[in-house]
Specification:
Layout: E1 9-14, E2 18-23, E3 32-37, E4 40-43, E5 63-64, E6 72-73, H1 76-79, H2 82-95, H3 103-117, H4 142-159, H5 168-181, E7 183-186, E8 192-197, H6 199-202, E9 205-206, E10 212-217, E11 220-225, E12 236-237, H7 246-257, H8 264-268, H9 272-275, H10 287-310, H11 318-333, H12 341-356, H13 360-377, H14 383-398, H15 402-419, H16 425-434
Parallel strand pairs: 9-12
Antiparallel strand pairs: 1-2, 3-11, 4-8, 5-6, 7-8, 10-11
Helix pairs in contact: 2-3, 3-4, 3-5, 4-5, 10-11, 10-12, 11-12, 12-13, 13-14, 14-15, 15-16
Bound molecules: zinc ion (3 copies).
Amino acid sequence: MKTAVIEGIERFNSPGKGRGLKAAKHFKVGELLFSCPAYASVLTVSERGGYCESCFLRKDSLSKCGKCKKAFYCNVDCQLNWPMHKLECTAMCDYGDNWCPTETVRLAARIIAKQKTQVERSSSEKLLPMQELEAHLDEMDNERREMNEADIAALHHFYSKHLEFPDLVALTMLFAQVNCNGFTVEDEELSHLGSALFPDVALMNHSCCPNAIVTYNGTVAMVRAVAEINPGEEIFTSYIDLLYPAEDRIERLRDAYYFTCDCKECSTKSKDKAKMKIRKLSTSPEPETIRKMVKYGRNIIEEFRKAKHTKNILISPPSELLEMCELSLDKMGSIFDDTNVYVLHMMYQAMGVCLYMEDWDGALSYGEKIIKPYSVHYPAYSLNVASMYLKLGRLYLGLEKKPIGVKHLKKAIEIMEVVYGKDHRYVADIRKDIK
Ligand SMILES: [Zn+2]
Ligand SMILES: [Zn+2]
Ligand SMILES: [Zn+2]
């Protein structure tokens, strides 16, 4: 089969990293390197009703699936994606509230369905066919293995009516591939919209000082330059949140993607001191005290994540989550500066809870503390920084403080024009709000 090409981009073997992408021409900051439609995608259950199930467009007047009354579409064209929805439609009617496959399982079901009907290489696989995605089967630990087994069981449970499954070996391989290569699609405020697979985009290797960034337009991934890229240079994106110090990033990358990052930032750790900044006190704390507090910071992040995801909101009301944030901030505040990333992490969580509870002033005060250090810790064109300016801008506009709101929104636009492109509807929407 003839390999398709993406103009200006080449697949190559990156020394020590395996497959990768490199530039064959010069790209300037903000330029689109390439775009890639989703091979398969799935809208997250909690966003149903606000977004089209098929193209992920946000719209007020969506039409409902007449059968399950759970999926919503922009128009008839989007509803033609019925083969994908059919996998879930009757099962959701039959199971009712007991229909609860994970997003990974839902995505895997769609991939299997697509592989059955598709013979030609799709436009998402110009440089890398779906089957060749990295799986890291040999490196999986027991916990991962058990999760995969649970996913496979759920797939059989919820999808057997409309899907013939490949054998266990192939299924194990598929789930491992989805776990290493799946993308989470987020909106401009970084709210989770769904999951998708983009084989060509998955070819890019990771760096903590990336020269490219992935954003989405509906279910199409766009890769844009966030630094000048010269011909012959490797194209890197970041797989993880870049807020944290080197040790944390390296651990996360090893756990989730099975490699040790050797980027410039991971070897020089040039930003670590600012990221772990200690409060100025009359007597500086002992190294042991600092070590203990770092350990506490890492633990509380994990504990909060579990509390947010596993606890029932009725048993664990948002006020309790907020209390957890406040207590940890008090404790860390005795040693850590307000710009320390563990402090910032918990402030960000507190802001999220305030937004959920519609405590706009509370959210604003956390956001204002976060934004400046965020701009220092993150790279120049960061979605985390842009979305924080955007949230603050929108909060101020909502509270009828237009001048300061507009100031923040303009900061958001500056970054968003580079990472999303000047013509993206997210940018157009904000311009409308400013007028
Ligand atoms: Zn649509
Ligand atoms: Zn339906
Ligand atoms: Zn790194």
